[in-house]
Amino acid sequence: EENARGHLVITAPTGGSAGVLPAVIYSLGPDGAKMSKEKLREALLAGAVIGYLCKHNATLSAAEGGCQAEIGVASAMGAAAIAQAYGDPPQVAANAAEGALEHHLGMTCDPVAGYVQIPCIERCAFGAVKAWTGYLIAKNEIPSNRRVDFDSTVDAMALTAKEMNSKYKETSEGGLAVSLTLC
C-alpha cells in the first residue's frame, strides 16, 4: 500500500518480503517485549548480517530463487534479530536463522495475477511466525547438537534456486498463480 502510494518502503530484504522483519521488530518494541531502541538497533544489525550472507552466497531475489529466497531469508533475518535482542550468544542467532531458513527451502514464488499480494502478504505473516519458532527452538536446544548449520542451509538454498524451474520464480506461470480460479 505504501509503495503504491509512492511512499518510502524499506525492503528487508525485498519488497515482497518486507512484512517479516517489521512484524518481528514490532513484537520486540514498545507494544510487545518493550526492548530498548539500542536492543532493536542491535537486532536489526544481526538481521542485516544474515541478509548479507544470504545475498553474498545465494540470492535474495524471488526471480532467481523463488520465495525461499525472499520470505525464507527475511524469516532467517528475523530469527537472528530476535536472538540478538534477547542477548543470546551468536551460535543461538545462527541456529535460529538456520531453522527459519531451512523450513522455507523449496518454496516457490507464484504471485496470483502477477501482483505481489497473494500469497505474498500472508507468507510474510507466516515468515514472522517461523522466525519466532526458529528462535525458540534454537534457544531451547544445545547449540552444539544442531545437525545442520546456517552455511549449509544457505548452500542448499542456492542449489535449490539453481535447479528450480523458472515457472516458479516470480513469473506467475506456475503453482498457485495458475491454480487459483478468479471470479
Could you explain the architecture of this structure?
- This protein has 183 residues and is mostly helical.
- The chain has one domain.
- Helices cover 57% and strands 0% of the residues.
- The longest helix has 21 residues, at 37-57.
- It is globular and about 45 Å long.
Which characteristics define this entry?
8 helices; mainly alpha; 57% helix
List the helices and strands and how they pair.
Elements lengths: L19 H9 L8 H21 L4 H4 L1 H19 L4 H13 L17 H20 L10 H14 L12 H4 L4
What is the number of E strands?
0
Shape: globular
Detail the poorly predicted runs: none
Q: What is the percent of helical residues?
A: 55-70%
Short synopsis of the structure:
The chain has 183 residues and is an all-alpha fold. It has one domain.
